Amino acid sequence: MRTIGIIGAGEVGSQLARAAVTHGYQVVIANSRGPETLTRLVDELGPSARAATAADAAEAGDFVIIAVPLKPVNDMPVEQLAGKIVLDTNNYMPWRDGHFPAVDSGEKTVHELRQEQLPASKVAKAFTHIQAPRLFLSASPPGTPGRHALSVSSNYPEAVELVTRLYDEFGFDTVDNSPLSESWRSGPGQPAWQSHAHQTRERLAANLANARRIKYPVRG
């Protein structure tokens, strides 16, 4: 699985594309404004990358990264994402995206809502509690003492396995924080979020365990 579709070319999507190309992946990247607006990014990424529509990026990817916020009405290419593992980098930020009552009440997580919008896909929460520049700054080879760790949440073991492998390639250890109903533990305001600059696997596991429900998610 060496082709990654990326939907979203903002700070997170662009940096994930850079990391993917660096590690030998082909990248097909899309944004909301059209492939012609991604010329500069694709030129920077080189021959391993091309721009496309969201539907084409979803179709081309062996797996797909969604690097855009969740919308109340699904705007993702459901048909093209069917049967694929989808990495969702979204965080619940109501001051940016508006409120989702089911998330505010603790009934569901924003990633469970993404899974509901993509019922034939296998959604995993990934790359959500690391700032984009640290995808390079904090990366280190396997076995490095005190290696930076990231969490993954999914209802599908095969999605967790893929993300774990990808994290390791990109330079990070993994803590499995599954299923998606537990994905709130690494969200804004939680210990894992606040320790984004660096946390080992052991520290991250403790931070996830120490998370507490925040009725109305806060900045930072």
Automatic annotation (TrEMBL):
<dbReference type="InterPro" id="IPR051267">
    <property type="entry name" value="STEAP_metalloreductase"/>
</dbReference>
<feature type="domain" description="Pyrroline-5-carboxylate reductase catalytic N-terminal">
    <location>
        <begin position="3"/>
        <end position="92"/>
    </location>
</feature>
<protein>
    <submittedName>
        <fullName>NADPH-dependent F420 reductase</fullName>
    </submittedName>
</protein>
<keyword id="KW-0560">Oxidoreductase</keyword>
<dbReference type="InterPro" id="IPR036291">
    <property type="entry name" value="NAD(P)-bd_dom_sf"/>
</dbReference>
<dbReference type="Pfam" id="PF03807">
    <property type="entry name" value="F420_oxidored"/>
</dbReference>
<dbReference type="InterPro" id="IPR028939">
    <property type="entry name" value="P5C_Rdtase_cat_N"/>
</dbReference>
